[in-house]
Structures are given as structure tokens and as C-alpha cells.
Amino acid sequence: MAKPRVLVTRRWPAAVEARLSEIFDVQLNLADKPLAPEDFRAAMQEYDAILPTVTDKIGAPALELDRPHTRILANYGVGYSHIDLNRVNEHGIVVTNTPDVLSECTADLAMTLLLMVARRAGEGERELRAGLWTGWRPTHLVGTKVSGKTLGIVGYGRIGQEMARRAHHGFGMTILVYNRSPVAPEVLAQCNAAQVDSLDELMPLCDFISLHCPGGGANRHLIDARRLDLMRPDAFLINTARGEVIDEAALSHALWFDSIGGAALDVFDGEPNINPQLKNSDRLVMLPHLGSATREAREAMGFRVIENLEDFFAGREPRDRVN
Ligand code: 8YV
Q1: pLDDT given for residue 23 in this prediction
Q2: Which end of the chain is more exposed for a tag (fewer CB within 10 A), N or C?
């Protein structure tokens, strides 16, 4: 039987590409640039499986087809708000993602951001590299203590829980949780966490707020001007979820007028383009979507995609099917 034809839209770790090529008839995108919607649409007429990433916007233009040939979109990443599931479902295409394997590394990065913004690490590094450091002084780049403070977690899924573990067991932080559905008491108990009923209730209670909810329509601008206003003036906002969850214009306004202590973002609305207003604030730490960027996580994500594909083409239900 012919091997299924598989398109990988970006370059992946070498070990994963090698394994994929052993099992499937693989086409790599050697240019390693995001596919244009028309190229994606053409690929949907040719490949049995497409392996997209967050840089593939799979919506109306890419899916304007009567009967696509592609039967599975096996996403490389846990978040899939870049895929318009309603349209994909109209074509009966299966979508899978890669949960679990990147949770620890993404939580590690959220903790990195939290520490960087509280301890002004980005400002310090910029100053030093610019040759502007004049030496130690008691009032130089004084930040905020992290240990023992209150952390609010928005979205208590796998990554949110890993973040809570780090913050509670490593830094003695008090954990408050906002989650759409009730979290099991035994799960909350692992970090002595308390769930609050609404996001509005959570915002003013926290020294730090870290976002771990999905992106996409329902959560677009979940953190808007009104909710930023509910934060304490010395509190920090951390985002390793999706850029669209924060109204970035409202955030830059809040930073400009000192109505919050600072923010640290790994993801941006419309990335890699960055709202220029954001760059005006020194109290904002920005990283280029590094959440899962470790050798270990990126390989594990790839092998998880392979597992999903093997199941699918063997006629089994892929373990990470999301639709
Ligand atoms: C991925 C992520 O690397 O998994 C996710 O949802 O945000 C990233 O860590 C990226 O999305 C690749 O598709």
C-alpha cells in the first residue's frame, strides 16, 4: 500500500523529520516560511495529512474547497485557535494537537517571565549591554519580591497547573484560580489553591496574574481595559497563552499611565508583528513565542504528532483529536 502523503509546513527537529520520513511519504517545506493561504489551499488538494503550526492561519481562504483531499490536520502545538474548526468540520477533517508534552516547559517560561518582570531583569540586561551600568547602588533597578506573593491563574488546565506547582512549591506563592468550569478539589489541593467564581473577582486579589486559557473567539480581549483597571497598581500580568487574549492597546495604555506594575508577554496579537505602542514601556518584558522552545519539548511534540498520524492511518481514533 502507498504511504500516506504528508506535508510538514515548517522545519521540525531533525530526529522527528527523520522518523516521519521513515513512516510516511513526507514533503518538507525547506523554505521554512509560513505557507500563503493559496499554497495551503493547493496542499489541501494534494496531501493526505498536513502538519501545521501556529503560523498557518487555517480559515476561510485556505479552506475554500468543495472536497479537500486532506483528511487530517495534525497540529504541532497544543493551541489550535489558528484553525477555524467550524470550517474544518464542514469538510469532515480530523484535527489533533500535542498536549502534555510541552506543559512543563511552557510553565517554566511563564515563571521566567514572571521573575524577569518582577526583578527587572530585561531592563538590567539592556542597560548593561548598552554600557550604561555605572555600578552598584542601593536604589538601582529595585524590583518586587516574588516569594510569598499571590498568583492568579486564568485557565487551570495542564499548563496552568504546572505554573501553580512551580509558584507554590518553589516560591511559596498563594494560588488563586479562575477557570470556566469547576476544578476538582483534589486538583486544587495539590497547590493549596482556591478557585474564585469570576475573573472580575480574581483581578484585584493578585500580585501576579498569569494567563493559561485557550485563545480564539471566546477569549479575545478577555483582559480588556475594564479588567486591567481591576488590577492592583503594582500587579503584573503574564501571558504565555495567546496574544489575542489581551487587548494590547488597553495594556499599553495601562502601562503608560502606571495603572499596573508591569507585564511580560511571550505571545502577541498578529505576531510576529508587534503593536509599536507596546515597545514604549520599559516595564514590559517581551519574548518571541518561546513557550515550548526546548529541545526536549519540540522533539516530544513531533513524536506526539507522529503517534496521532499512525493511529489515524491505522483506522484508530487519534488520542489527541480535538474535533
Ligand atoms: C508552539 C504553542 O510551539 O503549543 C502551543 O500552543 O504556543 C507553542 O509553544 C507553537 O504553537 C507551534 O505551533
Answers
A1: 97
A2: N
Whole-angstrom distance, CA of residue 197 vs CA of residue 65: 43
Domain check: are 109 and 95 in the same one? Answer: no
The CATH number for 61's domain is 3.40.50.720
Please check whether residue 78 lies inside any domain of the structure: yes
Nearest to 235 by CA among 106, 130, 149: 149
CB-CB contact of 200 with 176 (8 Å): no
Mutate which of 51, 95, 289, 305 to test ligand 1's pocket (most atoms within 8 Å of Cβ)?
289
Ligand 1 pocket member 53 (CB < 6 A): yes
**DSSP symbols for 263-295:** EEES--TTTTS--GGGGG-TTEEE-SS-TT-SH
Same domain as 192, residue 49: no
Ligand 1 site, residue 160, Cβ cutoff 6 A: no
- Look up residue 219 and give its three cell numbers: 477569549
For 208-217, the pLDDT digits (tens) are 999 999 999 8
Nearest-atom number in ligand 1 for the CA of 98 is 4
267-306 pLDDT, tens digit each: 999 999 999 999 989 999 999 999 999 999 999 999 999 9
CA separation for the pair 36, 29 (Å, rounded): 12
Residues of the chain above pLDDT 90, percent = 95
Residue 321 included in any domain: no
Instruction: Report yes or no on whether pTM surpasses 0.90.
Output: yes
Tell me the CA–centroid distance for residue 76 and ligand 1, in Å.
Answer: 7
Residue 60 has pLDDT above 90, yes or no: no
Q: Is residue 76 in contact with ligand 1, taking CB distance under 6 Å?
A: yes
